């Protein structure tokens, strides 16, 4: 059921307004990985977007206060992993501050350009970072796809209303 917007009760722009609006927006869930100075780093992202088909470019956002930011700010390559609905725990692990993201039970291997590549995902890419664009307390990272695979089985994991969810038909 939809409602006609009541313009009299609209709220001014704020971080809380933005969070409330985007709780209503279902998004695919990805894990972004990179090689860091002291080992692999990674984080859960719902901001992954296809930017261009020619050349093949993607984008994602990362907070400058995130533990993965120092590595992402310096690396030449990142890994992009599209998660399936069977990977809620993996998504939660990579979203949790202070978690041992690459310890058991996370299954991964070192891929091209030293990028950590996660096992059992729906799809993955290795991309070359071409720009980091300042955007408030975040950076929008633009990266050109170099190689990948989209042959994983299953349905995508979604993020909605602050929870990881399965796609319903």
TrEMBL record:
InterPro entries: Flavin_Rdtase-like_dom, NADH-dep_flavin_reductase, Split_barrel_FMN-bd. SMART domains: Flavin_Reduct. Gene3D superfamilies: Electron Transport, Fmn-binding Protein, Chain A (2.30.110.10). Residues 22-166 form the Flavin reductase like domain. The keyword Oxidoreductase applies. Keywords: Oxidoreductase. This is Flavin reductase family protein. It comes from Streptomyces ortus.
